[in-house]
Design a protein that fits this description.
Layout (H helix, E strand, L loop, with lengths): L19 H13 L5 E2 L11 H12 L12 H15 L8 E4 L2 H12 L5 E6 L5 H7 L3 E6 L10 H7 L4 E7 L11 H14 L2 E5 L15 H4 L7 E6 L12 E4 L2 H12 L7 H12 L3 H22 L14 E2 L10 E2 L2 E2 L3 H12 L1 E2 L1 E2 L9 E4 L4 H16 L3
Parallel strand pairs: 1-12, 3-4, 3-5, 5-6, 6-7
Antiparallel strand pairs: 2-8, 7-8, 9-14, 10-11, 13-14
Helix pairs in contact: 1-12, 2-10, 3-10, 4-5, 4-9, 11-13, 12-13
Bound molecules: pyridoxal-5'-phosphate (PLP).
EC number: 2.6.1.-
Pfam families: Aminotran_1_2
Organism: Candidatus Desulfobia pelagia
Amino acid sequence: MDTPIIALADRMKLIKPSPTLAVNAKAKAMKAAGADILNFSVGEPDFDTPDHVCAAGKQAIDDRFTRYTAVPGIPELREAIVKRFAEDKGWHYTPEQVQVCCGGKHGLYNMAQALFGPGDEVLIPTPYWVSYPPIIQLAGATPVLVPLSEESDFDLNPDVLRKYATSKTKGIILNSPSNPTGSIFSEKALKAVAEMALAGNWVVISDDIYDTIVYDDGPLPHILNIEPKLKDQTIILNGVSKSFAMTGWRIGYSLGPQHIIASMNKIQSQSTSNPSSVAQKAALAAVSGPQDFPLKMKESFLPRRDFIIQELTSIDGVTCVVPGGAFYVFPNLSKYYSKSFEGKQLKDSLGMSEYLLEKSFLATVPGVAFGADEFVRFSFAASMEEIKEGMTRLKKALSELS
Ligand SMILES: *Cc1c(COP(=O)(O)O)cnc(C)c1O
């Protein structure tokens, strides 16, 4: 290929194309060509945004609430978030300690730009959400991957964490319930993280986007409840994408120490300005209105989780940790990687995902995208019929390998 006239910025060398794209692009092309694709690769609820939230969005348009807003979001939305957090969690923030942004991912991006730079190391429990390492790298910092093991239900092991912490450690990203594993960090693990964070002056980034989709009874263990002293060095990332089925509206929010939020506002003011005015009004209806929608959603996911777990663990050689929250399962399919179909060995999670797509029209996300090649992610935000059909196809596909 000829060298193009315009060279790209050096930072583009840091970012690899997502390994999920190959499977995704193929799934789309197959579907367009009429194939009966069952899509278990989606990372969003299979619910519509609730009516009262949509109505608030429509009303905002009719009211011509269509101009720039304050950079960190409209005051009434930030106040509603403050109130919701005080009521639901007992955490007290001021509106100046809240930034509304263009989705949870954007909150993470603003945070990383404000806090991390060359020489900083950020601990990332692995399997991780796909966007954590690149966002840390785009800030010039170094992601340090801390392995979690399937045997301990993907809980954080403090002894392992200690091995990866150095004098350069500036922060840690927690995501509990986790995407892709659905695992919830134990009180014991979080207590150990809290001790290390206090001793090392780490910033704790808590991505709580799945905190309304929790299947176990009792409160979700949270580092801020375990160690309230950490409030001055913790950023909470959340949003309405998952809890109110609002992925396309692009509203996330972050809460944390005022000087950090103020810096994130500076970044936001020079990049995206305010998040969409209309979407903010819709998010206001979600945050300040009735909270039964996330509860209903969770109740509808539970039988689907139980069914898919029962099916997966009944397959010879397959293990799968029961997710405590979110809507993903992360089965270990690596026993099948040494097997072949029509003389071609699967080899890895990408090979497995490609095989399931080509052979059985099942779209999944290979574990390598989350830094864990033994696994493949299935979303169970699909109908029970689709899950049943999908598991039948999976069993057949695996049994036809030799
Ligand atoms: C979906 C998700 C988010 C937020 O996504 P947005 O669409 O940007 O709001 C953040 N963290 C994790 C782990 C997620 O799965």
